[in-house]
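Training component of the fellowship. As part of building independent skills, the fellow (R.M.) carried out the full modelling exercise for a liganded target. The chosen ligand was NAP. The inputs are recorded below so that the supervisory panel can assess the work.
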Amino acid sequence: MLKAIKMSTAAEPLADRVALVTGASRGIGQAIALRLARAGATLVLAARTASALAQVEEAIRRAGTEALTIPTDLTNDQQVEQLIRTTLARFGRIDMLVNNAGGGPPRTPIVKARLADWEWTLRLNLWAPMVLTKLVLPSMIARRCGTIVNLCSLAGLTGKAGEAAYAAAKFALRGFSQSLFEEVREHGIKVAVICPGYVDTPLIPPNRRVDRNKMLHPDDVAEAVYHIAIASPRCCPLEVVLHPQHDPFT
Ligand SMILES: NC(=O)c1ccc[n+]([C@@H]2O[C@H](COP(=O)([O-])OP(=O)(O)OC[C@H]3O[C@@H](n4cnc5c(N)ncnc54)[C@H](OP(=O)(O)O)[C@@H]3O)[C@@H](O)[C@H]2O)c1
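Fellow's submitted model of the complex:
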């Protein structure tokens, strides 16, 4: 087990923290991992694609911070449990859990949707964050500190045609997060949900009607996660809604 985690400093306020980021191989998760590493955190990187994770790990190491890659399919409960076991065996604790991995199938009306796609969407966006939260909580409660950030979406605030399962998962993730906060606030554990509008990542397929320059950038979301991580122990930014300043569809 690695014990030599650094002390936090003004330049590296998260140097004493171990942060697990899911979906860290690209897009928003990669930006979050790099931002937390720049603030000194030790990173655990999870996603399915080992080669992409290895590149993120390498970038973090080059910047002088410790990182561990654990290839994981989050729709598989055994792999989710193994992710936590491996992390705890290596670092002894998880101070920050960022449930970022998510996504959905292409837009499909409910009558044409495949049940397997619904199950996959709910597993990835809702079930995996719930299981990961359950697994990290005991050690956070014992230490009376910790931060859990769940990546939601504007689709978790307003439903849209063709995205029923994705919206259902994100609405439910907000409900889970609000209940979680009420359970753990007395233990000093922060819980935050981030609901971004369109972010320029591979999740959003090319579309002639959308101006990608008007979308949010992954770094905008990463910056929000960083500010949640360094927020005063007195306050919990439970729900953060990020709209692109300009409408990408105009
Ligand atoms: N982009 C947007 O406009 C937008 C807006 C609102 C909210 N969000 C939310 O923000 C989060 C990140 O989205 P993004 O835009 O960065 O998506 P992205 O570019 O498609 O990245 C998704 C990440 O999740 C990982 N992932 C997918 N399925 C997985 C699985 N079964 N097991 C483990 N990891 C898996 C992917 O890695 P592998 O493929 O290697 O597994 C990848 O690292 C999601 O929760 C999404 O719902 C995105």
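The panel noted the following from the submitted structure. The mean pLDDT is 96. Helices lie at 27-38, 50-62, 77-91, 115-143, 164-184, 218-229.
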